[in-house]
Every structure is written in C-alpha cells, then in structure tokens.
Amino acid sequence: MSEQMKEFNPVRPEVMDLGHRNRRKTLGDAYVDRSINNAQQDDFLQPLQEAVTGLAWGAVWGRPGLDLKSRSLITVSVLLALGRRHELKLHLNGALNNGWTREELQEILLHAGCYCGMPATVDGYRIAKEVLDERAAAADPASQAQGSSAAAED
Fold first, then answer.
1. Boundaries of every domain in the chain
2. What is the SS3 assignment for 99?
3. Helix runs in 42-117, H state only
4. Could you count the other beta carbons within 10 Å of the beta carbon of residue 55?
5. What contacts 24+ positions apart, CB below 8 Å, involve 133-136?
6. What CATH class does 66-147 carry?
7. Is the predicted pLDDT of residue 48 greater than 80, yes or no?
8. For the segment 15-41, what is each residue's pLDDT rounded down to a tens digit?
C-alpha cells in the first residue's frame, strides 16, 4: 500500500471507535477479532476492514434514530431479499445478539417471504435454524456430542 493511501483516513477516530463497539456488540468479539487479524495479515483486506468498520458500523449503524435491534431487522430483511447467505447467517446471529427472539426471527422471515418470495424465506429459515442450533450447541456442551438437528425441510 502506498504511503499516500496509508495517510488517508476519511473517518474520524471517534466514529471508527463507535464502529468497533457496534460491530462487536452485534457480531461478537470472536468474529471481529478474526476479521481484524485476517486484515492485519493481508494488506489487500485492510482497506475493506477499515471501510466496513468506520463507514458501515460507525457512520451508518452509529447514527441516532434507530437502535441496533431495529438496524438488525432491516439488515436481515435486505440480506434475505438479496440472497446473501453468508452475510445473512452472520447478521441472524447479530440480530439475536441485539435482542431479537427466536419467535421474532420467525416473523421477520415469514413477513419477508410475502415480498421476497417463499424460496427466499425457506432459505432464510434453513440458515436461521443452523444459527439457532449452533447457538444451542455452544450453550449446552452435552448437545455437541449428540450433533445438531437437520435443517428445515421445504
């Protein structure tokens, strides 16, 4: 990376700090630490990491007007509509971290199906079931030995 690019910092430090806090609260320390570590080891990823943290998580997720729970609802809905499976799984975890319940996620996914189509909702349910099963297994070490249940059926 050029010296000129290293000096380019379009996001104020306090906005970057807010981005780190929002990102950690939503996605969890382990995920954020892995992302930051990957970017530190690969300078190709570093500008993306800075943009995601400062612009998305700081300047947008940190704006007044919506709480993190509401922002998670919007994000899950948009990702479901766009078919972004990897990000949807990540943000379904984030929605749960931001206070959404299992039942509220069911309603979000069903409601989105009216506008995105039922195939998107079926896919969303499968991903949500994976997330819920993984979280249950992590909370109950005895269930890890038994394996997780099968994904939702069509």
1. 11-64, 66-147
2. coil
3. 46-51, 68-82, 85-97, 102-116
4. 16
5. 135/93, 135/96
6. mainly alpha
7. yes
8. 999 999 999 999 999 999 999 999 999
